[in-house]
Design goal:
The protein has 1 helix and 12 strands. It is mainly beta. The protein has a 12-stranded antiparallel β-barrel. It has one domain (2-173). The protein is 3% helix and 46% strand. The chain is globular, with a radius of gyration of 16 Å.
């Protein structure tokens, strides 16, 4: 679920509809002594574009991630609730003023080992999907992002955790547009 939260803030840019270009990375650190996990987002040139800090789960079963820009200013939050009776988990995205900008609902894993997250805007219209497959023999997990028409817009590949406890996700885009924005 953290992947959906992390990925929901990327605006991926590229210049070709035929090849995939790396547009950025996200590196998640170990959980600190306060129970927070921080992800640092970087562009294709390695410059930090922002951070996402996920706190502990509260007494209601909600987990909140605070998103900040490169200057440390809060740009929004993503709050993931408990799994419902149908096996779905919904994350609500809000801007810096607390207004809901969209949701991401992750369903159960299918018989092929894939898990799909459906992204919706503040009006409930589907803006795209992200399907995460099984981990491959190299320890990488790839998520394929599609627009509302089912066309692939990019991928995000998460590697194994390194010896320092960091996990890096590499984002690639193949259509020159954004996967989604909130």
């Amino acid at each position: 679920m953290k992947k959906a939260v992390i990925l929901s803030f990327f605006a991926l840019l590229a210049s070709s509809a035929f090849a995939q270009f790396t547009t950025g990375t996200s590196t998640t650190s170990q959980t600190d002594i306060f129970g927070n996990t921080t992800t640092v987002h970087r562009d294709a040139y390695g410059r930090t574009t922002g951070t996402s800090t996920t706190g502990q789960t509260d007494i209601f079963g909600n987990t909140t991630t605070v998103h900040r820009d490169a200057y440390g200013r809060t740009t929004g939050t993503s709050t993931t609730g408990q799994t419902d009776i149908f096996g779905n988990t919904t994350t609500t995205h809000r801007d810096s003023y607390g207004h809901t900008t969209g949701t991401s609902t992750t369903g159960q894993t299918d018989i092929f080992g894939n898990t799909t997250t459906t992204h919706r805007d503040s009006y409930g219209h589907t803006t795209g999907t992200s399907t995460t497959g099984q981990t491959d023999v190299f320890g990488n997990t790839t998520t394929t992002h599609r627009n509302p028409y089912g066309n692939t817009t990019g991928t995000s590949t998460t590697g194994q955790t390194d010896i320092f406890g960091n996990t890096t996700t590499t984002q690639k885009s193949n259509n020159g547009g954004t996967i989604w924005t909130w």
